[in-house]
DNA sequence: GAGTGGTCTAGACCACATT
DNA sequence: ATGTGGTCTAGACCACTCA
């Protein structure tokens, strides 16, 4: 009956409990590997490191060489409201301005426009055949220099060739307005949210710490006659965002709705 | 300039590439630790294990002792549609029936009802003072025996005392109907979605593999006069779910909307 | 019984930030 | 210069499943 819990598990469990009850506060310093080795009997260095690795992968602590291990501080989360789709379609390029008004931090973005072969994910959602190309706007968006999401939009090339959509910079009136001028007014959208660990590429672009999962948010927008127009793939780091949706029975009540009222902490 | 990449990184990078390009298909067997040790020169066992640990934490592989390491197979994702809030409020307890009709798998759930002191998360959203208690329905929901989410609802105790809400079983007409009968008709909701790694408790209850992140979905429902009624906290494992929302400009078009049409794979 | 991964030991040398 | 974590070596014993 007695499957004595491994030493590295006890290390992780004890430290996790001390983090949970506040004995080790956010930003606080953990014992060094040498100290832990002593605390938990004469175990070897890799054993305590194995325990610490668990906590790193849970996103609870970070290692800062050569200062030691520290309890991770959650940066304030970004308010990411779902736009009211009943009054106006979502405007992707004015996102940063929306956020700027909610928060003291300065938004900026890097935009890169190109023509590519669509991935199967994009192809399937736009209903494309094999030899059709798509135009893509790849954005990395920052708040006070810190990257806070990746946002790549795709539309069939035939649709936007020679339009403002292809301008490699901010489109002040919003890309959806451009699409409306091209006869593709957005009337609805389907959002899919996948939860997963980031790829190494995403870790690099978003400077993610270990143990930070992401949401992959795929939004497909449609015209009134169910014609898919644009696919947007949004990579949202879990440690600096909360995704907020509002649902309401009667759209006319919208003004009275509670916005996201809980500030920066859950 | 040449910071030679560590051996364990090369192990992880190579294997990750082979998984990405399909050389190692889902369910396929990786080389054993001994084989990898040989492939990457005379390195020691812990070195290759360190590389494999990276892939495990990325959710790409699993270790099955004593068969070896295998590429993780994504189980078909559960369709989790956003109910149409404009026609009827969400009915939490008939969730399982909704899903049963979309999918061949058999749903079941365990429900436990109790009275507790609210956590700060719940207290804040329900606007409670310090000495108010809440009633809670904790559910673990299964599909073909596999747990696929945790769903805990909270309402002020004063509201539902002696009502059907407290029945520790399925409430066929839905808990929101019960609340409506108590004078609290749900007219809107605010959804927050946090992305994070699971707690050990969640790992246990959902039998999560390493490297599986979760979404914590907090839904707060309101009456027409902005009175919070119920908080539901839903823990959604990332490896067996996709969260789907639909947005639409004109509610009357709803019937024509595209549902989630992409089956079990992204 | 053979082979797998799980746990652990007892060292080594290194890069790096702070003192 | 010191002490930290990062990487690596070269073993050990164990539990478990499969042939």
Description:
Two copies of one chain form a homodimer. The first copy, chain A, has 266 residues and is of the alpha+beta class. The first copy, chain A, folds into two domains: 65 residues, Orthogonal Bundle (Arc Repressor Mutant, subunit A), CATH 1.10.10; 179 residues, Chorismate lyase (3-Layer(aba) Sandwich). Chain A contains eight helices and ten strands. Chain A has a six-stranded antiparallel β-sheet, with helices on both faces. The two termini of chain A are 40 Å apart. At the A-B interface, helix 3, helix 5, strand 7, strand 8 and strand 10 of A face helix 3, helix 5, strand 7, strand 8 and strand 10 of B. Strand 7 of chain A pairs antiparallel with strand 10 of chain B. The first copy, chain A, binds a DNA duplex (19 and 19 nucleotides) through helix 3.
């Amino acid at each position: 009956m007695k499957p004595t819990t491994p030493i590295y598990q006890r290390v992780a469990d004890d430290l996790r409990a001390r983090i949970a009850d506040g004995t080790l506060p956010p930003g606080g310093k953990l014992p060094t590997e040498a100290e832990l080795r002593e605390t938990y009997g004469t175990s070897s260095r890799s054993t305590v490191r194995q325990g610490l690795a668990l906590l790193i992968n849970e996103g609870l602590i970070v290692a800062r060489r050569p200062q030691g291990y520290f309890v991770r501080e959650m940066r304030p989360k970004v308010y990411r409201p779902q736009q009211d789709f009943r009054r106006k379609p979502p405007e992707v390029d004015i996102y940063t301005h929306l956020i700027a008004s909610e928060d003291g931090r300065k938004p900026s973005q890097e935009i890169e426009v190109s023509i590519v072969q669509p991935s199967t994910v994009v192809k399937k959602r736009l209903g494309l055949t094999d030899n059709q190309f798509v135009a893509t706007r790849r954005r990395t968006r920052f708040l006070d220099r810190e990257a806070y999401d990746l946002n790549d939009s795709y539309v069939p090339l035939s649709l936007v060739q020679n339009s403002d959509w292809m301008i490699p910079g901010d489109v002040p009136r919003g890309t959806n307005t451009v699409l409306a001028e091209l006869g593709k007014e957005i009337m609805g959208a389907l959002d899919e949210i996948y939860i997963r660990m980031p790829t190494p590429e995403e870790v690099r672009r978003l400077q993610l710490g270990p143990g930070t999962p992401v949401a992959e948010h795929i939004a497909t927008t449609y015209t009134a006659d169910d014609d898919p127009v644009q696919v947007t793939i949004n990579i949202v780091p879990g440690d600096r965002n909360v995704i907020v949706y509002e649902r309401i029975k009667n759209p006319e009540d919208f003004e009275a709705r509670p916005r996201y009222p809980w500030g920066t902490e859950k």
